[in-house]
Amino acid sequence: MDDGRPGLDGLAIEKLLRGAVLKGHDPMEILREARIDPSAYGDEHAAIDGSALFRLVECIQQKLDDAYVGFLAERCRLALETERTRAYLHANTFGEALRVSIRFTQALSSDIGPQLIETDRLGVMHVCAYNTVEGVDRDIFVWLRFVWIYHLFSWLIGRPLKLRRVFVQGRRPVQANGFDRFALFQCPIEFGAKVDALCYDRNDLNVRLVHGTLAEYEAHNAGAPDWFAPPGGELSWRSRTEQVLVGLQREGKWLPSIEDVAERLRSQPRRLRRNLAGEGETFQHIRTRLRGEMAGALLLATDLPVTHVGYAVGFSEPGSFTRNFSEWAAMAPSEYRQRYKADTARMAAATTLVTERREPQAGTQAGHLR
Questions:
Q1: What is the rounded CA–CA span in Å between residue 87 and residue 109?
Q2: Over 70: is that where the pLDDT of 4 sits?
Q3: Residue 183 and residue 362: Cα distance in Å, rounded?
Q4: Which residue of 9, 111, 118, 168 is most buried, as measured by CB atoms within 10 A?
Q5: Three-state SS across 279-323?
Q6: In DSSP terms, which residues pair with 244 in a beta bridge?
Q7: Banded pLDDT at 362 (limits 50, 70, 90)
Q8: What is the CA radius of gyration of the chain?
Q9: Does position 109 have pLDDT exceeding 80, yes or no?
Q10: Domain boundaries, the chain
Q11: Contact 23, 65 (CB under 8 A)
Q12: How far apart are CA 150 and CA 322, in angstroms?
């Protein structure tokens, strides 16, 4: 966070945390967990970037176990949000995924009333009715939900959605640092409208999804995507590297060299290092994280002894596994299992990850799923 830097200002940060505050949570604690300087809270001269915003929203959701960050009377538990995500990931096209998501949302809560309306001039209108609780800023919630919708479905199709127009009932937000939080939509914005709506190009409804697994979605979110940057587009070098490493994991190769990965990417090791560095990543960090994610998933989703989990992810010595896992998770494998075994959302995500990543012919080697 840099004072005066363009980005979401401290007043907006305070508004985003209002739902959590109303439920008795300490906003400073949440900001620290999101790796944001607490002094930004309520300060119009402070600002955070798009990745910090993503981390903040994620922290609020986890703290409240609510995808709607405490702004609605009826919360959406994260386990249900995972099921909704799994549902539309099975769709073939953006239009199909959108309709699945809307039907799921309508079944979840009476506080949100999404619908699709065909228009002659503006394409397909995705109208969203949000009944927020008293004491929160409805406008910031509408903006946040639109950001989430835009980035999610742009990621699913691999490029930015072609929005025709965005309608919002609220007034144009003005920040002291001049940052325009609606600019990311790259289309005309109509403030003071009668409804809150995103208008899609009809042609986009038939675009096929390029992502289709929960593991891909979780890997994407693990990188804290920049919500102020244009979404979608060509796969990053990090994503390409992750895909190759996951494929090698399925083959039982847990410590491939950068030369092995670069060859599969039809690149050179030096170029791969340089491209990853340009995205703020390193090959070693990606390889370690994917290995740690699989180990953590096996600890929660299977009944394998800790030692066997270490063997399953390529460690020949129990002590080496414990040491490396502790560096990755900031706790020992046994403590990790004990702490999170009752967390239904983590358990569901772990089961999905193990199912999608483990070697198909592994049989009982991966242990019995809980």
A1: 17
A2: no
A3: 48
A4: 9
A5: CCCCHHHHHHHHHHHHHHHHHHHECCCHHHHHHHCCCCCHHHHHH
A6: none
A7: very low
A8: 22
A9: no
A10: 8-206, 235-366
A11: no
A12: 40
DSSP annotation of 67 reads T
CB atoms within 10 A of CB 178: 9
> 């193990």: which residue's tokens?
354
Q: Which residues are CB-neighbours of 338 under 8 A, at least 6 positions away?
A: none
Instruction: Name the amino acid, one letter, at 278.
Output: G
- Burial grade of 40 (CB within 10 A; 0-12, 13-18, 19 or more): buried
Q: Superfamily for 235-366?
A: Homeodomain-like (1.10.10.60)
Length of the chain: 370
Residue 235, pLDDT score: 60
How many CB atoms within 10 Å of residue 18? 20
Find all residues with CB under 8 Å of 237, minimum gap 6, and list them.
272, 275, 276, 278, 279, 281
d(CA 104, CA 302): 29
Q: Are 257 and 213 in contact, with CB atoms under 8 Å apart?
A: no
pLDDT at 328: 84
Structure tokens belonging to residue 110: 């009476």
Mean pLDDT of 214-232: 85
